[in-house]
Amino acid sequence: MMQSVDIAIVGGGMVGLALASAFKDTDLRIAVIESREPSSELDVLPDVRVSALSRSSETILRNLGAWQGIMQRRAAPYVAMEVWEQDSFARIEFEAQQLAQPDLGHIVENRVIQLALLEQVKQQSNVSLFMPAKCASMAIGESEAWLTLDNGQSLTAKLVVGADGANSWVRKQQDIPLTHWDYGHSAIVANVRTAEPHNRVARQTFTAQGPLAFLPLGEENLSSIVWSTEPNRAERLLSMSDSEFSKVLTAEFDNRLGLCEVVGERFAFPLKMRYARDFVTERVALVGDAAHTIHPLAGQGVNLGLLDAASLAQQVLEVWQQGEDFGTKRNLRGYERWRKAEAAKMIAAMQGFKDLFEGNNPAKKLIRGIGMKLAGQLPGAKDEIMKRALGLKGDLPKLAQRSGIKSQTH
Ligand SMILES: Cc1cc2nc3c(=O)[nH]c(=O)nc-3n(C[C@H](O)[C@H](O)[C@H](O)COP(=O)(O)OP(=O)(O)OC[C@H]3O[C@@H](n4cnc5c(N)ncnc54)[C@H](O)[C@@H]3O)c2cc1C
């Protein structure tokens, strides 16, 4: 059977669902196609895939009505951040109090964010959820796109959104070229118990081999780690016994929280920068990891993605209210310019950080030390860095602003 919708979102991860939810007060007909149904049962031990949500992401999720569902499930606020370089005097600290903020963000399991959004989307009468289902084919016509799903269903849509992650099927179908490079790192993620409590401080050390972050979870001695290191070493670390791994980790983290004990599973993700050359083509738009992926060292990937979703929704609604076709490339150009610029800035910043902190070159070490000291002492510099990290700076969509967006019907 053929179903006609206004917007078909391929990928019901955090970003795709946020986009669907952004149309909650409209009468646009939305389809979400997601290949994997997330289990709603949370384990006692948190999932190892977590995100550090910025203030702007929190605002978006609040405006979408999903924040409560996140807090009810599991989320851990962090109130300070410590960054230092191994074997050097370079160190900087940020505190929420200094910025008159209650916290600097929240560490949340990706599945918790997805489940809270899913709960919202399921209440929307304008959303049809195809889950589990995968797209099998896509064809682009003059005024609409056709999708067939692997369960035999078909859809037509004025706009197809690729929210289907780093290896986006939609992006590949459209032959959108990708600028990409390998960061030369794999990131190991795991849950770790530490002898000392984390005191709700997010910590990251830069070693000559790459950054290692300890993100505080709800339990006071439990952290989620993101350990970026050269791929062969990551493989060796993964193949170690728990006790061997824990010993190496304790040393790598400068014993900062005492003895570490890895609990549960460990996974490694190869890290690649990806930047789609086009974020829009006729009848197609990309959001989130489908459009860009960056190094997790500043924990900004999904934060960027949620801003993409909020910005695309805003652009579509503006075009729609003018009675125009929101599926044309011309009418989506504003979204593309807006978000490509923001993603490019973030990619450049991540590369700059990675290059600056790589290796043991004494001159670079000196610059890093002076840089961190200056950032800590120059009036306003620390505030500026933190406001950027909190997502309070930059060209924000309305959904990321306190007032949110108003009900919109046509
Ligand atoms: C180690 C690591 C640590 C990270 N830490 C942070 C952090 O602290 N903060 C942060 O902001 N970001 C972080 N990120 C980045 C963040 O995880 C990603 O940016 C985020 O998951 C992207 O969300 P998404 O919804 O765009 O894509 P995904 O989460 O990949 O979701 C895509 C969805 O599409 C579905 N799908 C795929 N193909 C199809 C298809 N053909 N048909 C139907 N459905 C399909 C998938 O099942 C999936 O549910 C980290 C990344 C890594 C690797």
Automatic annotation (TrEMBL):
Oxidoreductase among keywords: yes
Cell location: Cytoplasm
GO molecular function annotation: 2-polyprenylphenol 6-hydroxylase activity; FAD binding
Superkingdom: Bacteria
Pathway named in the protein's UniProt entry: Cofactor biosynthesis; ubiquinone biosynthesis
Domain FAD-binding per the UniProt entry, residue ranges: 5-347
The entry's keywords: Cytoplasm, FAD, Flavoprotein, Monooxygenase, Oxidoreductase, Ubiquinone biosynthesis
The keyword Repeat is assigned to this record: no
Cofactor(s) required, per the database record: FAD
One Gene Ontology biological process: ubiquinone biosynthetic process
Cellular component terms (Gene Ontology): cytoplasm; ubiquinone biosynthesis complex
One Pfam entry name: FAD_binding_3
Listed InterPro entries: FAD-bd (IPR002938), FAD/NAD-bd_sf (IPR036188), Ubi_Hdrlase_CS (IPR018168), UbiH/COQ6 (IPR010971), UbiH/COQ6_monooxygenase (IPR051205)
NCBIfam families: PRK08850.1, Ubi-OHases
Family: Belongs to the UbiH/COQ6 family.
Protein name: 2-octaprenyl-6-methoxyphenol hydroxylase
Source organism per UniProt: Vibrio brasiliensis LMG 20546
